[in-house]
Amino acid sequence: xxxxxxxxxxxxxxxxxxxxxxxxxxxxxxxxxxxxxxxxxxxxxxxxxxxxxxxxxxxxxxxxxxxxxxxxxxxxxxxxxxxxxxxxxxxxxxxxxxxxxxxxxxxxxxxxxxxxxxxxxxxxxxxxxxxxxxxxxxxxxxxxxxxxxxxxxxxxxxxxxxxxxxxxxxxxxxxxxxxx
Length: 180
Hints:
This protein is mainly β. The protein has one domain. It contains 3 helices and 25 strands. It has helices spanning about 20-30, 30-40, 40-45, and strands spanning about 5-10, 15, 55-60, 60-65, 70, 75, 80, 85, 90, 95, 100, 105-110, 110-115, 115-120, 125, 130, 135, 140, 145, 150, 155, 160, 165-170, 170-175, 180. A hairpin with a 2-residue loop joins strand 1 (about 5-10) and strand 2 (about 15). The longest helix is centred in the first third of the chain and has 8 residues, at about 20-30. The protein is globular, with a radius of gyration of 16 Å. The two termini are about 30 Å apart.
């Protein structure tokens, strides 16, 4: 679940799919990591680093208020071009967001994740609010980048929380978090 909800779009060599509007293409042009990977596409295909041939796109607001997922969700390599609002979300098992891009404000608050959470190699371009969340499984943000203010205020991390090589470009708030 997850990537099946969005629009699937190919990444084509040095350019992006013609499915995107001019405004959306401009947002992609600001993603220098993606542009660099696309330019190196033939080289990358020969190395161990793999970039997706297709991505999933959410063009509008994604609102998941008080939604309960009983199965794992997979938003790997998903580009959220608008806000993501997930207040009171319950994810009973694993949540995968690795390689995703969040172009607008992300608001995951007052939620619960029962399994592993993966945000590895993701980029948050605007404010990320991850407040009052209960992470019961392992959490990985390795090699991710936060371009704006990031807030984990009063979140609970029951197992390992891995933030190795995360780039914080602005303030980050872990006030009143619990690490058990």
